Structures are given as C-alpha cells and as structure tokens.
C-alpha cells in the first residue's frame, strides 16, 4: 500500500445554486423529501458545486468545475446562482487557472462542466465568444459522455451547452469504461443519470476516496429511490447506487458529494439492526 500513488486532496466550494426539490428527489413524495432538504418559496433546494483539487507534486488535477461564470441574469435568477466560481476557490488557495494540468469530469451537465470555458469579453457576454478557463489542461471524460453531450442527448435541452465544449474540443481526452487516466486516479462508469457518467477514485496518504457525481449528489440521496427527474434511466441509477454504496462499505471509501450544501465529505453506513438500508453520515474533515 505504501507504494501507491497518493494525491494531496483539497475540497473546493465552487458556488451554490438552487434546483427544484421535486426534480431533485424524483419519485420521493414532497412530505418526505421536504424533511430532508428545506425548500424555498419557489420549491427550490440549495445545492453546492463541490469540486476537488488533487496534487502529487507534478500535476494539479481538478475534479469537476461547477457552473462557472457565463450565465445571463435570467439564468442566475432561475437557479439562484451565487456569484462565485471554482476560480474564486482556487484563488483563495493561491492556485492560478493556468496551473491546472488536468480536469476530470463525472459528466458534462452545466453544473459540472460550465466552468470549462469563460466569456472572452465579459462586457459582451455570449456575443464575444468563449475561451478555455484552464488553458493548459487536458479534460478527461468518458467517450460516451462527450458523444452524448455533442449530440445533446439529454432529458434537458440546455445542459449540454456547446459553449462549454466547442472552445476546448482539442483538449478532451476520452476514456472508455474503467481506466486509470493518471497514476493512482481511476474512473469507472456509473450510468443512469447520464449513460456516460463516471465515478472517480483516488487516495491521499490516509484514505481512499470516491467522487460519484450525480449518482449520489447529496447526503439525502443515499435512499435507493432518490433518483432525479434529470436522470436518463432512474432504474439504472437505483441499481448502480446500491452497488456503489456496497462498494463504499467494502472498500472503506470516503465519499465526496458533488452537490451537498453542508457536508461534502461522508462515509457510508451499512444496513443493520437499527436501519433497513444504507445511509450516508457526514465526516467532519476537510
Ligand atoms: Zn448532472
């Protein structure tokens, strides 16, 4: 174990936003989910974009980017987007966007891939065109995910936006299935939310981690029925999630939750005498 390639791990808070609570919990009735996450007057619940910075002394890797900055006032209002991005989080720990060597994405929806690009001229907005946020980074995702994003195969019409993808089309490095795109960083497919979604695994000196993307976005999503209206295949999500939670117990994995607003780091609790199914418990480490 001591020879395993380890990564210094830092959680980055890349901005909060709000999505419809009913959409976030799929078939779970509101009287149940509203006990887990308090909706606002528009039925929305708060979510954060939690990204991860991984450093090994040679490479600086960003897992996920959040929604980024190139949104209209109308979009910002619909989604209650905080005026904060992953760039703010990186600057707070004195990292420049140019230092990022790789970006690894669970999938390419707007709240995960939006910050791959920036407005070239903020005063002109979309009309001025777009540039890469991380000009020196390779962007790693599943080949299936990139194809579906380019074909806009989604239950949503405005999540796989070309403005996130086309300006950096030469920077994508795609993998197919389980792979180790960087030393000690492995990815594996976890379909359901999208067909090409992947989970990302790595270790620091103390523990193994997994980032499951939107397979399990918050502490409240450990329930197998807590799929999302945004999922391409809710049944697949349910099956993949149960297998994922079992893997987390078997491997003693620490889970980084991509959208939990309060507790991005968690541990899976197995079913037992006092609980019928897996749960997620926050870990007070950062
Ligand atoms: Zn998503």
Would you write up a description of this structure?
The protein is α/β, with parallel strands linked by helices and 286 residues long. The protein has one domain (8-282): Ribonuclease Z/Hydroxyacylglutathione hydrolase-like (Metallo-beta-lactamase, Chain A, 4-Layer Sandwich), CATH 3.60.15.10. 20% of the residues lie in helices and 27% in strands. The protein is built from eight helices and 15 strands. The strands form three sheets. Strands 9-10-11-12-13-14-15 form a seven-stranded mixed sheet. A six-stranded mixed sheet has the order 1-2-3-4-7-8. It is globular and about 60 Å long. The protein starts with 7 loop residues before the first strand and ends with a strand. The model has no long low-confidence stretch (mean pLDDT 95). It binds zinc ion. Zinc ion is lined by residues 107, 109, 193, 214, 230.
List the helices and strands and how they pair.
Layout: E1 8-20, H1 21-25, H2 30-33, E2 44-55, E3 60-63, H3 73-79, H4 86-92, E4 102-104, H5 110-113, E5 117-119, E6 130-132, E7 138-142, H6 143-151, H7 162-165, E8 172-175, E9 179-182, E10 185-189, E11 198-203, E12 208-211, H8 234-250, E13 254-256, E14 265-269, E15 279-282
Parallel strand pairs: 3-4, 4-7, 7-8, 12-13
Antiparallel strand pairs: 1-2, 2-3, 5-6, 9-10, 10-11, 11-12, 13-14, 14-15
The structure holds zinc ion (ZN).
């Amino acid at each position: 174990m001591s020879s395993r390639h380890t990564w210094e791990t830092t959680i980055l808070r890349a901005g909060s936003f709000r999505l419809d609570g009913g959409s976030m919990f799929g078939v779970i009735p509101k009287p149940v989910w509203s006990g887990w996450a308090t909706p606002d007057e528009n039925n929305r619940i708060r979510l954060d974009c939690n990204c991860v910075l991984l450093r090994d002394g040679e490479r600086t890797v960003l897992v996920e980017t959040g929604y980024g900055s190139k949104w209209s006032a109308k979009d910002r209002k619909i989604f209650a987007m905080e005026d904060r991005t992953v760039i703010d989080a990186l600057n707070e720990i004195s990292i420049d966007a140019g230092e990022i060597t790789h970006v690894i994405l669970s999938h390419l929806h707007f709240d995960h891939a939006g910050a791959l690009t920036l407005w070239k001229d903020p005063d002109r907005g979309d009309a001025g065109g777009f540039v890469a946020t991380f000009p020196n980074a390779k962007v790693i995702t599943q080949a299936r995910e990139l194809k579906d994003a380019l074909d806009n195969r989604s239950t949503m019409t405005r999540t796989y936006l070309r403005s996130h993808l086309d300006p950096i089309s030469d920077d994508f490095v795609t993998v197919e299935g389980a792979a180790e795109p960087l030393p000690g960083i492995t990815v594996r497919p976890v379909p359901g939310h999208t067909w090409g979604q992947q989970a990302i695994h790595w270790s620091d000196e103390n523990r193994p981690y997994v980032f499951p993307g939107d397979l399990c976005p918050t502490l409240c999503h450990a329930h197998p029925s807590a799929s999302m209206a945004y999922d391409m295949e809710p049944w697949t999500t349910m099956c993949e999630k149960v297998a994922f939670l079992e893997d987390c117990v078997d491997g003693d994995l620490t889970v980084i939750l991509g959208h939990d607003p309060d507790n991005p780091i968690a541990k899976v609790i197995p079913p037992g005498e006092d609980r019928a199914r897996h749960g997620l418990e926050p870990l007070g480490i950062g």
